[in-house]
Amino acid sequence: xxxxxxxxxxxxxKCFGDVVALDGVDLDLAPGQIHGVAGPNGAGKTTLLGLxxxxxxxxxxxxxxxxxxxGRARPAPRGVAGFVxxxxxxxxxxxxxxxxxxxxxxxxxxxxxxxxxxxxxxxLTEVADDRVRGFSLGxxxxxxxxAALLIQPRLLVLDxxxxxxxxxxxxxxxxxxxxxxxxxxxxxxxxxxxxxxxALCSEVVILATGRVRFAGPLGKLATDQxxxxxxxxxSDPDTARRVAGETxxxxxxxxxxxxxxxxxxxxxxxAPAVEGLVAALVAAGVGxxxxxxxxxxxxAAFLALTEEPETDQQETDQQGTVRQEGDR
Length: 328
Ligand SMILES: Nc1ncnc2c1ncn2[C@@H]1O[C@H](COP(=O)(O)OP(=O)(O)OP(=O)(O)O)[C@@H](O)[C@H]1O
Known about the structure:
Elements: E1 7-16, E2 19-29, E3 34-38, H1 45-53, E4 60-65, E5 68-70, E6 80-83, H2 95-105, H3 112-121, H4 137-149, E7 155-159, H5 167-182, E8 186-190, H6 194-200, E9 203-208, E10 211-217, H7 218-222, E11 228-234, H8 237-246, E12 251-252, E13 258-259, E14 262-269, H9 271-283, E15 288-293, H10 297-307, H11 312-325
Helix pairs in contact: 2-3, 3-4
Bound molecules: adenosine-5'-triphosphate.
Adenosine-5'-triphosphate binds at residues 16, 19, 21, 39, 41-47.
């Protein structure tokens, strides 16, 4: 069995009629990590997660999950849990009875105590005996996670698990996922929220038009040398603008405006040039109250990778990342 990778995909292709949802995806996902899958609408995220869960099969390519080849007549191995497009639940049953019914459906003998513990872990104890019909989207998501926890998954696959969660609910779900990863569970989750991915994931896969644009450590993506737009709040906006115009590698952006009641300066620069600008401002007697990227480095990298057509260089980068992690 392959202990180096929880998931190995080579040339995975899936079409729906004329639509190519996944187009030759190569991927190696290390075990015990939280992997984020990001990409614009229609990029193929849900299709990929559905393949991992064995809900659908690829038209071409190879997929190995937890060391076992999956495909037509080869279902996903035990130990894989999760959901896409929201968890499948029985609206007329209570949360507790839903978990009992789902366990019975899987042929699992689960004690009431374990069901109670799973509900407590996702913060649903108080509504355990309420019918799911009245549950909000966030509560349903949490119940879906509780159902997955019951089987003690080795691979947990979740499509947009933070959807509909309030900030406290999100913290709780994040804590559950981190706890699972700490005990060796591999987690693959999709999200449109870069802040969620930054908070949770060590590795990220970026898909666009069914192809992998990046796969690897989050840090590698976010710390790529990339020019970003920064917002500076200073004690003297006019002098700050003049100093910015004179600082090497810094380009003031036109149309600066009010930001929280003060006048902000917007510049485009690489991170080292921004450090130079701050030093120059201090030397000129200008107080610097705040320096922050207008969009996070990860979001900027995401936009750059997904909004532009794929280049040969990106293709090389992606292939390189895949080759580094596994053989071909
Ligand atoms: N069952 C289906 N029948 C027809 N087309 C489908 C089906 N499932 C997915 N597609 C198409 O495949 C492409 C990829 O869809 P998918 O749902 O995997 O993307 P996604 O990245 O999850 O998108 P979103 O962020 O909007 O959820 C889209 O063009 C979609 O319309």
